[in-house]
Amino acid sequence: MFGALNDMSIAWKVAERAVAEGAIITLSNTPLAVRMGTTNELAEKLNAKLIPADATSVEDLENVFRESMEVLGGKIDFVLHSIGMSPNVRKKRTYDDLDYEMLNTTLDISAISFHKMMQVAKKMDAIAEGGSVVALSYMAAQRTIFGYNDMADAKAMLESIARSFGYIYGREHGVRVNTISQSPTLTTAGSGVKGFDSLVDFSERVAPLGNANADECADYCVVMFSDLTKKVTMQNLFHDGGFSSMGMSYRAMEQYLKSFDCPQDENKFKEFKDEKGKIIYG
Ligand code: NAI
Description:
Layout: H1 10-20, E1 26-27, H2 31-36, H3 39-46, E2 49-50, H4 58-72, E3 76-81, H5 87-90, H6 100-123, E4 127-137, H7 151-173, E5 176-182, H8 188-191, H9 196-206, H10 214-225, E6 236-239, H11 250-259, H12 266-270
Parallel strand pairs: 1-2, 3-4, 4-5, 5-6
Helix pairs in contact: 1-10, 4-6, 6-7
Bound molecules: 1,4-dihydronicotinamide adenine dinucleotide.
1,4-dihydronicotinamide adenine dinucleotide binds at residues 2-3, 5, 9-11, 29-30, 33, 54-56, 82-85, 109, 136-138, 182, 184-185, 187-190.
């Protein structure tokens, strides 16, 4: 499991959930995150080995898979890539003023590391037949979201890698590769996105089921690791309460009209509801 930094991290929740289901896991994060973060606490709690690695380093990744196979006493059944970082976002460079060195770093950490992970694992024959590899993505790969910046390009690439590698890994080793496109979630990486709170609020109002939280994402990841999804591969799976299929919702429209200089017409909304306040239109 790559990417558990603190107890808000999606990978943290996935690790806890997988172990609760009886999995034996190893954890990995950057040497800096291991020193500064609280991943050690999780490792202790879950009795899991913590293997520091920069996910952009092929050598470090080889070490993670080697040590993991030693700990597990055989091949690995599932891998979680829960890694993302953009120096351009951190340094507040706008999308039309990107620093290209930083863009390379964004893509390397947030997308190419996924390729490196699978290339290393495949060469070492580290993942068992029928195994499952999951990376976390976001809808900005398909649709432009204010403030998501070069991470949108990284996510588009991440999802493409899942398809391209999924074809070869499936064909040769029966390994599944998918991305889960998660709702905006309050984590360290999430909070780096400009206007994140408003984004969370907007998608909460638009999605019929509301935003999916990190615990719910963990549930979905565990389903994807399990034998219940043996023939699901090369997919980008939206886990967002329905947000990605919506255009406009009643709740968002109501809020929109309230907040701006739109001519208010109290009766306008009344006709959409019955006397008990239930929405009676579509
Ligand atoms: P997080 O900040 O807890 O996790 C990001 C992780 O990436 C951290 O553990 C960090 O140490 C690690 N990382 C950064 N550079 C690395 C490197 N060079 N090598 C190895 N690890 C490195 O935040 P969160 O939200 O749990 O992020 C996990 C994944 O979920 C990311 O891919 C993120 O883009 C994705 N995601 C997050 C959403 C959100 O709103 N929080 C929504 C949709 C997807």
